[in-house]
Amino acid sequence: MEHILTECPNNNSSLIWSLAKDIWPENFGAWPRINIGIILGCGSVNINPHRQNDEHENHRNQKPHKGASRLLKILIAESAYLIWTTRCDRTINGTTLTKQSIIKRWSLIINKRLQLDRLTARKINRTPSFLKLITSTWHDIITLHEPLPKNWAIALEVLVGIKPPRPSLSEATR
To answer: What pTM, to 2 d.p., does this model score?
Structure first.
């Protein structure tokens, strides 16, 4: 299982994990080293805010950053699921996907999760705390050249999406 999700060169797992790593905001901390333990336990992963000093006592009393933890859970779970489904497609159906189609598929999946959160905030869970959680989850990876409007998560007319994947160095020099 670990080979399929993290090491196998035939299922583009390195491409998918690099997409997740590239979109991860640096201000949330370093991207974790992905292994089977992180993937299987992603539902219980918590990101602690950066410490201002190295006092161990302060670190124990800090609450996890809910938005960063939630984004990490989404990125890991959705990326692992995409790796698994593309592997099954290749193995069972004989389908081979290009690098561009995998990038498009991954971006679509993450954008769907963003839109699902927006829909949930608008129609199902209209509490200020959920709106704050969505904002802290997605704010740093949404593409807009202007600051986000205050009601971006519930406003229908605001078009938001994740930043498109950065081209690799080999593609940028062509």
So the answer is: 0.83
Choose among 16, 168, 142, 5: nearest CA to 71. 142
Spatial neighbors of 126 by CB under 8 A, at least 6 apart, are: 154
| pLDDT 10s digits, 42-74 | 999 998 876 444 444 455 556 788 999 999 999
DSSP 3-state of 153: coil
Closest CA to 103 of 13, 16, 4, 7: 16
Cβ atoms of 76 and 44 within 8 Å: the answer is no
Containing 119, the helix (H) or strand (E) segment is: helix 99-119
Neighbouring C-alpha atoms within 13 Å toward the C-beta of 63: 3
Q: Which amino acid is at 35?
A: N
